[in-house]
């Protein structure tokens, strides 16, 4: 019973992060199951089974708060489902020892771009409103879906970071749309695991506990992403991408560090992330203060002009 309560709380926390930043539910939950001794394929299958419910709840919540661009959902979700099904069916025989660190390095680069771009310059507006083309979204969805199924998480980090970096859609719409499309990806991954594994190793009780916690957090996360300033949200997403994928590198065989060095790396990362978030919050407040001042000046000018017109005698 204690294990189920812990899993439910973990699901709640993971979904709160995932629904507001667009990533980390799968990574967080899979890490917990692996720490409990579950094999990678069964852990990913259990998490994806839980995500059928959590992604549905998250998608509905984001739709209610108008965070969803349905064109993006369709363009990235369908190829994502194909990639997830393929990744799930081959996971038992696929070695990800090389693929995971390579993907982690790519995501760290994207995370650094997102973190610095949003922290220092705010929301990229040069491409805002420009269409996201199928030739860009289809391969992205395919790769993100495959990584998600084989790694027990990755749909959000791959899809969100890449689309955010393009600067063509505001962050809340990116996060809401990617979170909504994840439902289709999760169903496809679960079907692939059913074909490849059956129900072997899948703990239905653990999946249910993760689902309950995630479903409770979904509405609040969707509300949060609508009200957090884009600049702050972008800094949060970028830092999360970096920390998550540095962890992937440090947990693998590609980079070997001692316990003290690993702790120092994490401490430095979190310090930089906290500084970036602090800077983003202060920059947003300064920008907001200027916008309010400009608005007040325009109102005052309009009132003065109106008074002058009233003072002029009519002919």
Automatic annotation (TrEMBL):
Keywords: Cell membrane, Membrane, Transmembrane, Transmembrane helix
Residue stretches spanning the membrane: 45-65, 72-95, 101-123, 174-198, 204-225, 256-281
Membrane topology: Multi-pass membrane protein
The protein's name: Probable membrane transporter protein
Localization per record: Cell membrane; Membrane
Pfam families: TauE (PF01925)
Chief place of localization: membrane
Similarity field: Belongs to the 4-toluene sulfonate uptake permease (TSUP) (TC 2.A.102) family.
InterPro entries reported for this sequence: TM_pro_TauE-like, TSUP/Inactive_protease-like
């Amino acid at each position: 019973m204690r294990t189920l309560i812990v899993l439910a709380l973990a699901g709640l926390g993971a979904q709160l992060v995932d629904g507001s930043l667009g990533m980390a539910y799968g990574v967080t939950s899979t890490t917990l199951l692996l720490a409990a001794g579950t094999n990678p394929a069964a852990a990913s299958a259990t998490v994806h089974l839980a995500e059928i419910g959590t992604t549905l709840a998250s998608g509905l919540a984001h739709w209610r708060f108008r965070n969803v661009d349905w064109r993006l959902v369709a363009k990235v979700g369908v190829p994502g489902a194909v990639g997830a099904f393929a990744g799930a069916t081959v996971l038992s025989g696929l070695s990800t020892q090389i693929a995971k660190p390579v993907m982690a390095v790519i995501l760290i680069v994207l995370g650094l771009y997102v973190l610095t771009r949003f922290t220092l310059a705010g929301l990229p507006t040069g491409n805002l409103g420009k269409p996201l083309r199928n030739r860009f979204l289809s391969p992205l969805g395919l790769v993100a879906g495959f990584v998600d199924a084989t790694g027990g998480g990755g749909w959000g980090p791959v899809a969100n970071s890449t689309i955010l970096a393009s600067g063509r859609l505001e962050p809340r719409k990116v996060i809401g749309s990617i979170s909504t499309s994840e439902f289709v990806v999760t169903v496809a991954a679960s079907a692939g695991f059913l074909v490849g594994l059956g129900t072997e190793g899948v703990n239905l009780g653990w999946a249910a506990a993760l689902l309950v916690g995630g479903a409770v957090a979904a509405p609040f996360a969707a509300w949060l992403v609508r009200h957090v300033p884009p600049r702050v949200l972008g800094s949060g997403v970028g830092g999360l991408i970096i920390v998550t994928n540095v962890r992937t590198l440090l947990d693998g065989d590609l980079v070997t560090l001692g316990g003290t060095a690993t702790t120092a790396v994490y401490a430095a990362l979190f310090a930089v992330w906290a500084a970036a978030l602090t800077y983003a919050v202060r920059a947003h407040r300064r920008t907001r203060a200027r916008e309010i001042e400009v608005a007040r000046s325009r109102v005052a000018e309009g009132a003065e002009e109106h008074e002058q017109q009233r003072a002029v005698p009519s002919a």
